[in-house]
Amino acid sequence: MKKIPVIVLILAITTIISVPSEAGNTSVNSVLYHVNGQPPLIWGVSWKGDRIYWAFEENSSITIVEAKAPGDVEPLFSYEVKVSRHDTDYYFGGSHVMLFNNSFLIWGHLRSKIDDIMKVDYLSGFWIANVSRSGRVNWAKAYLTKCSSSIIRTVKVNNKILIIGDGSIYSGSDTFIALLNSKTGEIEKGYALGGQSMDRISHIVKLKNGNFLLAGTSWSFGTPQTAIILVEITPQLDIVQKRAYVTYENRIPVKGLELDISKVKVTEDGNVVLEGTFGVWSHTPNTTVQSKDGLWELKLDRNLNVVSYSFRELASPTTNLTLSLGYTVEHNSKRYLIPEMYTGNFNVFVGEIRGNTIDGELIGIPTNTNPTRPQIWLMDVAPLDDSMMLFLEVHGFADEMYANQIEGILVVEVPYDNITAVRELKKRHLYSGHFKFELKKWNVDVRQYTGDFDEIIRTLKFNPPEGDIKFIRKTEGIPQITTIRDPGPAGKLEFPDIANETHVYIDGKYVGAGPKMYTLPAGVHIVRFQHKGFVPYTYEVEIKPDHVHYIFGPAYVTITTTPPNSTIVLMEQDKNISISGKSPLKAILRGSYTLKVAKEGFRTVVKDIHVFYGKNVTLHITLPPQSATLKIESDPSASVFINGTFKGNTPLEVELPPGQYAVELKKDGYQNYSITVTLKDEDVVTIGEVLEKVPTTTIKSPEVLENATSTTSSPAQKFFEGNETEDNPDSKTEKSICGPGMAVIIALLPAEIRKRHKSRDGQGSMAR
Questions:
Q1: Stretch 615-641: mean pLDDT
Q2: CB of 446 within 8 A of CB of 309?
Q3: What is the tens place of the pLDDT at every residue in 498-542?
Q4: How many angstroms separate the first and last alpha carbons of the chain?
Q5: How many CA atoms lie within 13 A of 441 on its CB side?
Q6: What's the CA gap between 544 and 549, in Å, rounded?
C-alpha cells in the first residue's frame, strides 16, 4: 500500500462565546430587522394599500424594499450611487422612496467629502432618480448647492414632480421648491424661500381651488420662537399668498417656543387644519429646561385666515418627560398620537387622544435599568387600513432581559383600538409601561405676523448646477435582510479575518463583503465565500441561540504544478464535496482535503492536505514522469538496439517511458536476437538470452560448391551463390562449414576459377 503524504498549510480556530439571554413568545406583530448583519438606515417610507416601500442605504448603495407585514420583506432592487463634481466625491444619506405613476422615485441628500469651502465650490446637494417597476433606471439627476440641502417631500403635479426641500443654500437658512420634468428629471422652475430665520417646509396639501399649500416653520423673529409659515402656490409654482403666524402670551411673543407640524389636512368645507406638538424651552448659559409641552391645533379658512386655535399643555406624571417630533393618525373618528418622548432617554409613545386625555403605552427602556447609551428614534409611521406600522431605529440599549446590546430597525404593527397590545413588547424587545396624560388649556393667542414679510421669507432664484451622477443597478450583492423575532432564538456569526474583497452569501443571499458580524436565527445555515478568481467555498454552520461564533479562515490557496495544465481534484474529507479544475487552480479552502493531481504521461500524486487559517497560500506539486525499467543480459555480451538506436552493451539497464519497444541484440559471429516488449508504468522487465553462433558450410570442390545449398548465410556462400538464406529458410545444410579456413581456401583459388564461378553465379541467379 502506498503512503499518502500529508501537508499542513495553516492553523484554524473556531471560538464560540456564549452570551446569556432570555426571550418569550407573544402574538404581537413586531420584528427587529438587520441588513447584512448590521442595523440599516431607514429615513422614510411610502405605502399603497397594505404594501409598504422603503429604501435603506449601505455605504454607497441604495436598496428598495417591499413589505406586506412585519417579517414579510422582500428586497426589490439595489443600486450603486456615485456623485462627483470638481474632482470631489460626495457622501449621501436620507434616502426615501415613493410610488410615482408606474415607477418609483428615490431621492436623498449629498455632502462633499472635502469640507474646506476654499477647495470646492459646492459642498452639498441632493439627488433624485426614477426607476421602473422592473428596476430599470429611467433617469437620475444630482443637483449641488453651496451648503447643506435635502429633499423633504415630493408630489405629483400634472404629471410633473414637485420637490420641496430645505437647507442652507443661499442666505444660510432657506427652504426651496422646484418643478421637475418627470421624463428627464430636469428642473423646469424653482426658487428658494429665504430670510433671517431657519425656514423649513415640512408639508404640502392640495387645496379645493387646485392650488397647493406649503406649510412649515421659521425660527426665529428676533426672539427665540418658532412661527408657522404658509405659502400658497399654483401648479406652475407661482406664489399666490404668504402668511406667517406667531404665538403671544399676555401680549408678549412666547420665547423659546418650538412647534412641530404633525399633520395638515383640508376639510370638506375647504378649511385647512394644522396640528402637532409644541415645547417651550428656557435657555440659560448653563442649562436648557423645557417648561411646557403639549398639543396644538390651528384651523384656517380658505383665505388662510385664523378660524380657531387650541394649545393644550400636557400634565405630565413626571417632570422628566418631553414630547417632540411625532405623528397624528385618524381612524374611524378616533385620533392617535405617535411622538418621540424623552424620559431620561429616547422612547416612542403610542396613545389614543380621548378628549382631554391621552392614554397609551411607551416603547423604550424599562425605568429600572441604567443603559449606557440608549437611542430609540421614530423614523416614520405608515397608517394602513387596519393598523399602524411604526418604524423605530434602535441603537445600543440593554435591559434586564438582554445582557447584550441589540441594534436594528424595529417595525411594530399596532392594531387600531388596541393600543394596549403594545404592552406585549415586554416579552419581545423593549417596553416601559403605561402612561395616561391630562391635557389642560394654555391661554395663548395666535396672531398673524404683520411686520416686514421679507424678514420672514423672500423669494430667491433657485437653479443649482448639476453634479455627475452614476446610478447603476446591481445584479449581484443584493443585501440580506434578517428578521429577528422574539428577538430570537438567534446568534451571531463573525468572520474577523476574511479579505475585504471576499463576498459572503448566507443561505443563498448576499450579505456583504469583508469581516463583519451577522445576526442569524438559530439553526443550520449555508455559508459561501466568493472571491474574484477563486473557486468559492461553501460549508454549513450551526448557529446556537445567544452564542457568538467567531470563525477564522478560510485560506486563499493557489495550487501550481509541474507540468502545468494538470488536472486537479480536491475532495473535502468527510464530506461529499469536490473541487476540480486545471492548474494553476485558485480556491478558497478550509479544513481537510484529499488532493489528486494527474496528467497523461506522468504519475498521479495523491496527498492529504489540511487547510487552516491564512490569507494567501501557494502549494506547488511536481508530477514525476511515468517510467519503467528494462534490464537486458546476454551470453556473450552484445550490442543493444532499442527501436533501432544503439543503447550500449549487455548487461544493460535503462529507464523508459511506458510503451512498446523493439529490442535487438547484435554480435559478430552470432545470430541477431530480436524481441518486442510492452512496458507499463513502474514495470521492471528483464531480458536474458544466450546467443547462437552463426553456422558455417564445408567446401569439397568448386563443382560441389556450385550445387551446394545452405540455410546458413556466410560470406563464402554469398560469394559463390548470391543467394541469402531468407529466400529459402527451410532448406537444410548437408554439412557445416566452420572455422577460419574458408577464407584461406577462397584466397588460394585461381583467379580464373573465381571468375568462372562468378559468371555462373550470375547465370544461376537469372535462371532462378
A1: 90
A2: yes
A3: 888 888 888 888 877 888 777 777 888 989 899 999 999 888 888
A4: 65
A5: 5
A6: 9
Nearest to 131 by CA among 108, 101, 103: 103
Its sign, for the CA torsion 316, 321, 327, 332, is: negative
95 neighbors 62 (Cβ within 8 angstroms): yes
Degrees, nearest 5: CA angle 55-56-61: 105
* Residue 219 pLDDT: 72
Beta bridge partners of 377: 393
Hey, what's the torsion of the CAs at 493, 499, 501, 505, to 10 degrees?
-20
- Whether residue 229 contacts residue 242, with contact meaning beta carbons closer than 8 Å, is answered with yes
pLDDT tens, 285-339?
A: 666 666 788 899 999 999 999 999 999 998 766 656 677 778 888 888 888 999 8
What are the distances in angstroms from CA 203 to CA 340, 459, 626? 19, 18, 83
For residues 437-474, b (16+ Cβ closer than 10 Å) or e, as one string?
bebeebebebeebeeeeeebbbeeebebeebebebeeb
- Are residues 162 and 182 in contact, defined by beta-carbon separation less than 8 angstroms? no
Which DSSP state fits 762? H
Q: Which of 294, 295, 298, 293 is nearest to 308 (CA)?
A: 298
Residue 157: count other Cβ atoms within 10 Å of its Cβ.
19
Quickly tell me which residue has 445576526 as its cell.
519
Task: Output the CA–CA distances (angstroms, integers) from residue 516 to 20, 365, 500, in the order listed.
Answer: 22, 27, 10
Give the Cα separation of 109 and 165 in Å (integer): 10
pLDDT at 44 over 90: no
Contact 654, 630 (CB under 8 A): yes
Report whether 146 contacts 168 (CB < 8 A). yes
Can you tell me whether residue 283 is helix, strand or coil?
strand
Cα distance between residue 147 and residue 311, in whole Å:
35
Distance CA 684, CA 686 (A): 7
Which residue has 423604550 as its cell numbers?
364
3-state secondary structure (DSSP) of residue 453: helix
What distance in Å separates the CA atoms of residue 681 and residue 718, rounded to the nearest whole number? 45
Q: What Å distances lie between residue 392 and 15, 45, 136, 205, 339, CA to CA?
A: 33, 12, 30, 26, 11
Q: What is the pTM of this model?
A: 0.59
**Distance from C-alpha of 326 to C-alpha of 309, rounded to nearest angstrom:** 19
Tell me the backbone φ, ψ of residue 698, rounded to 5 degrees.
Answer: -85, 130
Q: Which amino acid is at 36?
A: N
Contacts 24+ apart (CB under 8 A), 637-642: 637/667, 638/665, 638/666, 638/667, 638/670, 638/673, 638/691, 639/665, 639/666, 639/667, 640/664, 640/665, 641/665, 641/666
Sequence-separated (6 or more) residues with CB below 8 Å from residue 203: 153, 214, 215, 216, 261, 263, 264
Rounded to 5°, angle at Cα 345 from 339 and 351: 25
8 A C-beta contact, residue 145 and residue 124 = yes
Residue 57 is predicted with a pLDDT of: 81
State how far the Cα of 461 lies from the Cα of 5, in Å rounded to an integer: 79
Integer Cα distance of 247 and 225 in angstroms? 9
> Between these two residues, 615 and 22, which has the higher pLDDT value?
615
Cell numbers found for residue 247 = 404665538
DSSP 268: T
Rg (CA), the chain: 48
Q: Which amino acid is at 678?
A: T
In this structure, which amino acid lies at residue 664?
E
